[in-house]
Amino acid sequence: MLGKITQVIEKMKTDRYRSLMSKIIVFIIICISTLGVRAETEYIQLSKIKLEKRTKIPLAQMSKLEFFLSNIKKIDKNYEKLEKRMRSNEIVGLELLVADTTKKDFESRWGHALFRFVDINRKAANDLVVGYVAQVDSPGLSYFKGLFGGYALVPELRPLREFHQQYAAKANRHLDRFLFSSDKMLRKNLFLKLKREWLSYRSVFLSNLEIQKTRALKKAKKYAKKKRARVQSIVSLYGKVVGLRVVKDKKNLRVFPIKFKLRRSKIPQKYTFLRNNCSGAIVKLLRSAGLKFLPRFSFNSIIPVKLDDFLAKHHLIHFKLPRIPTVQEVSNFPDKSFLDLKKMKGADVDDYIKENASSLSDTQRYIILDQFNLEDNLIDEISSFLSVSVVPTYESIYHLKSNNSYIYNLCLDKRCRVKSEEGLIKIYKKRKKKYSSKKTTFFVEKLLLQTEIMN
To answer: CA 109 → CA 152, 203, 297, 300, distances in Å?
Structure first.
């Protein structure tokens, strides 16, 4: 009896072993087949897909995603650059930049506020500037989403040159400059808070993109199986997958773009036009960096063109610097204005340049080369009239003036003095907020001491 029981137990062990081994073999086969599928994945560039009626909308969605991914890559590099400059003590001051108002778009009627990190070792156009913008992930701008927090708030960090091209050249809007009183500790805190905000948005955006990519791949494979076709990955210029398409016999059956719209619940910071806009976000950033004495909400704090008044009232801005003019103001072309040339057709612009190339100044020629897409023969013709001995800088062409680094330390102690040759414009404010000593930090106390001298 005992022997039979032993035989049964041994048989059960053998059966379990065989079952376990069979499961392991099946698992290995599945892994090998999966690896084989991945190895055979086909890729196609987004630019090589033909524009058809049924692919028009998916191509537009994928192109927008390509732009977003490219923008994230550039901003990542800019944050790395700013971190290196902060560590090497190259950032000597801060400026508030306010773009002029315009009636062209509803959202631009109150201007746009930016923050500039002034670098002592580089030209003005290479200074890094942060601007808070809404991540418009819909086909068109929705004012409803802009009002009620449907878009993510993104702290974009770009060189001053890019913002200058965006506002002074394309939008014909000058940039007002205001000297923001700051010390090394405040600038460091501002950068750390900015970087944390950017990494938070970046992490949420990319993780959501991976989820959407998995969903799109599942749909594409299901459709391909139904049609007995194959799946191709659509990649951007930088090699990132932005969509998938199902093809059969070299015929495009369907395109599955990767959706990148964030759910409202996952948005780290929400953009709201009446509260957390480009201006209100800057005030919120200043509070988080240590300036707790600033009110949480003020009417002037949410209007970009009134932000300088708000900060002057709270002793953070005392001086206005020479503004950055528009390209229209510095070009002065004969018979035609810069805006007139921008409105003209390509052939008409070419004819105007050929007729006036010899009589234009070097500055005007450089502006033409920088602002217009010209053919090679016309570029050579304009270049032949340039003075080789004197090559103007971007800053000198567009009047991006740099100031001595010492002015960014004004209004921090009693030794502050203003020299007339700096061209600083004193901002007079009849009513300034008075703070009790209990509610002020050491940094603010120094500002208040200086305010008594300057007023």
So the answer is: 21, 32, 21, 15
Considering only 4-18, 23-37, 91-105, 441-455, which range has the smallest mean pLDDT?
A: 441-455
The span from the CA of 326 to the CA of 165, in Å, is 9
Q: Write the single-letter amino acid at 264.
A: R
State whether the Cα torsion 222-227-231-237 is positive or negative.
Answer: negative
Residue 40, helix vs strand vs coil: coil
Contact assessment for residue 203 and residue 210, using Cβ atoms and an 8 Å cutoff: no
| Token representation of residue 390 | 């004197």
The label of the residue with tokens 């977003």 reads 68
Instruction: Give me the residue spans of the domains in the chain.
Output: 1-40, 41-325+408-455, 329-398
Q: Residue 325: is its pLDDT beyond 90? A: yes
Q: In Å, what is the CA distance from 443 to each residue of 195, 389, 446?
A: 22, 49, 5
Q: What is the pLDDT of residue 27?
A: 54
Order of strands across the sheet with 230-235? 42-45, 230-235, 241-248, 251-257
Report angle CA 333, 339, 340 to the nearest 5 degrees.
Answer: 75
Q: Are 90 and 117 in contact (CB under 8 A)?
A: no
Lowest-confidence range among 216-225, 303-312, 360-369, 386-395? 386-395
Give the type of residue at 40: E
Q: What residues does 95 pair with on adjacent strands? A: 116, 179
Q: Of 385 and 443, which is predicted with more confidence?
A: 385
Identify the residue whose tokens are 């004004």.
410
pTM over 0.70: yes
- Give the bridge partners for 234, in sequence order: 44, 243
- C-beta separation of 390 from 416 below 8 A: no
Average pLDDT, the chain: 80
